[in-house]
Amino acid sequence: MQFDAWTGLDAGLMAPARLEAVHRSLIDSFLEDTVFRQLLSAGMMVLLAVFCWRYESSGLLIVWLLIGLGTVSYRSWCERAYRIAAAQRRDTLDNRVGFVRRMEPVYMLQGTVWGASLLFFFDRIDAYNQLACWLIIACVASAPLTSVALVPRLLRAYTNLLFAVLLACLAVTIALKPGPVRDMNLLFLVLPVLHWCLLARYGRFIFRRQANQFGEQYDLALREQEAQAVIRMKNRFLAAAAHDLRQPVSALSLYTEFLLENPESHLELAPKIASATLAVKNLFESLFDLASLDSGQISLHVEKVELRAVLEGLRVQFEPLAAASQVELRVCHSDLTIATDVVRLRRMVGNVLSNAIKFSAHGGRARIEVWDQGHGIRPDELGKIFEEFYRADRADLPTVDGVGLGLSIVSRLSRILKTRIRVDSLVNRGTRFRLELCDLHVGHARPMASRDVG
Fold first, then answer.
1. What is the DSSP secondary structure assignment for residue 139, as one 8-state letter?
2. Does residue 20 share a domain with residue 149?
3. Strand pairing partners for 374?
4. Which of 40-54, 75-89, 372-386, 438-452 is the least confident region?
5. Is 450 part of a structural domain of the chain?
6. Largest alpha-carbon pair distance within the chain?
7. Angle at alpha carbon of residue 354, lines to 353 and 360, rounded to 5°
8. CA–CA separation, 365 vs 65, rounded Å?
9. Going by C-beta distance under 8 Å and a sequence separation of 6 or more, which residues neighbour residue 27?
10. 246 lies in which domain range?
11. Under 8 Å CB-to-CB from 19, ≥6 apart: which residues?
């Protein structure tokens, strides 16, 4: 609501970060060339006083001039204080809103001072000097438009008071005139009203155009950052993929050469070749899964699925991996039946389970909800673990196979299967993944009756 009240931006139509960036850019642009505008305003006040000096009480003119110049000086002080605070990394939303709030009465007073100036010249000095004074009023009313319009509240405070006071003074002055002269001078009321309406209209136009431009600049910068992040991610992936492929591909090359030279060793080399081939196959399967999920061309084969059969199949599949890692894998079966895509369900839960086994300390255990007693995940890393190719950069973590695609695939599958995933973790204590499956025929989240799969 602060954005709506103090800058005119619609908080409901912008993301908070974009709104913040646009707000900051508007204030920064508003403060550009502010010294020149202050000198111009002060100079115009002095010039108007010079035109009226011979015709008006010098005491009243001096008081009016001192109030006007004092307002300009205070405005200069407020802007300088804000610049200093912004330079000291205190350019926050609250500070900017506070700055606009402090400036509002300043602009109201400045508008009042300029509106009251009409009492010094209208129908009191010669026609040529009156024309000059009217030009000064038109200039000071219109000149700030391109800058003050960037903060609509300040523009309204300035122009509304300027024209309201000016019209009030003009109406009182005309009302004191004799009948025929009064009727002729009533035309003067029309021109300030038209000027006021035009300034309000163009002020809104300038604000919307500039806000949209700053919003587009933010979007471009954000897309550039995202593109840079994608490039860094792809570079990370290429490095990780090259690292993970080098060993099995090199092993396959060596085994093949050795087998060609020593055909009789095929029984000994066959398991090693199969293991290296499986590593390459798993990597490419992960890449293909990721590509197909990102393409959005996944068609689900929804059917009634017994969780007991799924969990038992996962136990058979991952028991050797768990045994090799000295991890106890236990299955608490469930008799629940849900409607889902059994292939994608196995893939999703299997990736979480595989990840838990890999990062469990020797002798720990993994369960589904998936629990492990591994190294845990730091709070600042929890939001990143589902990103493509992400690996925790910690020296105390063991080196494991894979390029960091498993949980990214889990994240995509969870959206397709309408599965809620919650992750809780304590460093050096372990991690828990909780999956709440959805019956796709019913269409609402339906937690598993038993979520303790070893």
1. H
2. yes
3. 360
4. 438-452
5. no
6. 126
7. 85
8. 83
9. 96, 99, 100, 150, 151
10. 236-295
11. 3, 9, 11
CATH of the domain at 441: 3.30.565.10
The 3-state DSSP composition of the chain as helix, strand, coil percent (nearest 5) reads 70, 10, 25
* Residue position matching structure tokens 């508007």: 26
Q: Is residue 333 part of a domain?
A: yes
Q: How far apart are CA 275 and CA 269, in angstroms?
A: 10
How far apart CA 20 and CA 2 sit, in angstroms, is 11
pLDDT digits (tens, 9 = 90+) for 267-299: 777 887 887 787 777 777 766 766 676 666 677
- For the chain, how far is it from start to end, CA to CA, in angstroms? 49
Q: Are residues 136 and 256 in the same domain?
A: no
Kindly tell me the burial class for residue 223, based on how many C-beta atoms sit within 10 Å of its own C-beta (0-12, 13-18, 19 or more).
exposed
The string of pLDDT tens digits covering residues 116-169 is: 999 888 888 888 888 899 999 999 998 888 888 888 889 999 999 999 999 998
For 217, the token pair is 């600049």
Q: Please, what is the average pLDDT of the chain? A: 78
328, β-bridge pairs: 365
Residue with tokens 């090199």: 250
Q: Please name the residues in contact with 216: beta carbons below 8 A apart, sequence gap of 6 or more.
A: none
Does 333 share its domain with 245? Answer: no
DSSP 8-state code for residue 423? E
How far apart CA 412 and CA 294 sit, in angstroms, is 8
Average pLDDT over residues 414-425: 80
| Shared-domain flag, residues 213 and 111 | yes
For the chain, what is the domain count?
3
Q: What is the CA radius of gyration of the chain?
A: 37
191-235, pLDDT tens digit by residue? 888 999 999 999 989 998 988 898 899 889 989 988 888 787 777
Would you state the structure tokens that stand for residue 6, as one six-digit string? 């103090």
Mean pLDDT across 406-429 = 79
Residue 231 lies in a domain: no
Residues 6+ apart with CB under 8 A from 356: 366, 370, 371, 372, 374, 431, 433
Residue 451 lies in a domain: no
- The 8-class DSSP code of residue 33 comes to T
